[in-house]
Amino acid sequence: MKVLLVDDSGVMRKIIARSLHSLWINEVIEAGDGAEALQLFGDGDGFDLVITDWNMPNMNGLELVHAIRAAGHKLPIIMITTETEKTQVIKAIQAGVNDYLTKPFDQDMLQLKLTRVLPNPQSI
């Protein structure tokens, strides 16, 4: 399974990537913002999931979701948000996000979200 993990915090990316690896996600590609993520995403082939933060420089998570969905990609997307951004979750879902994580979250919550959005969650 190949995941595109997008967050402007290198520390958060490392923490989430470590959790994903412990859940048997074998490939995690990291990006620091939406613009970098789109470059790495390319035509989308090979990615099974996108996990993106909302607040990032250059291109935020919502703009990234719009770009991925506008290109016709249907892979699952999980948005990471903070408690104060809960009102923005509706916008994210309308843009095509499949689920969201509210910071702070633990590995159990991440695993729950993965089982909700992935087509074969028994491997998680």
Features:
single chain; Rossmann fold; 124 residues; globular; five-stranded parallel beta sheet
Summary, kept brief:
This protein is 40% helix and 21% strand.
Secondary structure topology:
Blueprint: E1 2-6, H1 10-22, E2 27-31, H2 34-41, E3 49-53, H3 61-70, E4 77-82, H4 89-95, E5 99-103, H5 107-117
Parallel strand pairs: 1-2, 1-3, 3-4, 4-5
Account of the 3D structure:
With 124 residues, the chain is of the alpha/beta class. The protein has one domain: 3-Layer(aba) Sandwich (Rossmann fold), CATH 3.40.50.2300. The protein has five helices and five strands, in the order βαβαβαβαβα. It has helices at residues 10-22, 34-41, 61-70, 89-95, 107-117, and strands at residues 2-6, 27-31, 49-53, 77-82, 99-103. Strands 2-1-3-4-5 form a five-stranded parallel β-sheet, sandwiched between helices. Helix 2 runs parallel beside helix 3 (61-70). It is globular and about 30 Å long.
End-to-end Cα distance, whole Å, is 10 Å
The multimeric state of the shown protein is: single chain
Number of helices: 5
- Strands of the largest sheet, in order across it? 2-1-3-4-5
Number of domains: 1
Number of strands: 5
CA-based shape:
globular
Average residue-wise pLDDT: 92
**SSE-based structural type:** alpha/beta
Annotated CATH homologous superfamily? Response regulator
- Please give the CATH architecture: 3-Layer(aba) Sandwich
What fold name stands as the CATH topology? Rossmann fold
